[in-house]
């Protein structure tokens, strides 16, 4: 960070990288709540588009159900549109993006065009833990609450505490699909981390800990980046 930045602080674009199930979604929700930066989750935007059966949703649904990654062009279009909204003026946080080097390069252009600065974190969790976390996840299709059969079960098995709806396992959390998502991650997203390591610091976060302990470390790093 140069001397010029001390006078006009550039808006930050926070990236939370790491495999599916590493806790990026949980942590980014806490960061957004505590710091007020807009949180952009490509997963949530896509599920919303699928639920509303928009043209983009209709294209993405069969791909996601089979554990395939959604094409870059689709995601980049979704994000480019989203970041023009007023809540992103002072910065934003991306959860689940970029997942490919091609996406990272598109994002680099977007960040440069908007005069922003990147802050990159990489969440690290052993593969066996990811498999257990993801395949045990249950989801409420009505209010989108998330549970886990071992670590955060609903009070009544299979029923949402908040709205009483029947919980489901999202198709992309089924064990065979989870294995495919992890393979896609290894092949396509690990090179993204290398892409950013070449450009500047990437802060490694040990994600195999209690949610609060992980956040304490994230918060310390973010406070440093924002000051
Ligand atoms: Zn519910």
Explain this structure.
- This protein is an alpha/beta fold and 227 residues long.
- The chain has one domain (11-126, 179-226): 3-Layer(aba) Sandwich (Rossmann fold), CATH 3.40.50.
- Helices cover 49% and strands 15% of the residues.
- It contains nine helices and seven strands.
- The strands form two sheets. A five-stranded parallel beta sheet has the order 2-3-1-4-7, sandwiched between helices.
- α2 packs across α9 (211-226), α3 packs across α4 (55-65) and α5 (72-82) packs parallel to α6.
- The structure holds zinc ion.
- Zinc ion (ZN) is lined by residues 140, 142-143, 145, 160, 162-163, 165.
The biggest sheet, with number of strands, parallel, antiparallel or mixed sense and barrel status, is:
5 strands, parallel
Strand order of the largest sheet: 2-3-1-4-7
Measured distance between first and last alpha carbons:
11 Å
CATH topology (fold) name: Rossmann fold
Category from helices, strands and their pairing: alpha/beta
Identify the overall geometry.
globular
Strand residue percentage: 5-15%
Rounded average pLDDT: 87
Rg to the nearest angstrom?
Answer: 18 Å
In the CATH scheme, the class would be: Alpha Beta
Oligomer: single chain
- What is the CATH architecture descriptor? 3-Layer(aba) Sandwich
Helix content: 40-55%
CATH superfamily (homologous) name? P-loop containing nucleotide triphosphate hydrolases
Structure ligands: zinc ion
**Annotation field: number of helices:** 9
Number of strands: 7
Order of helices and strands: HEHEHHHEHEHEEHEH
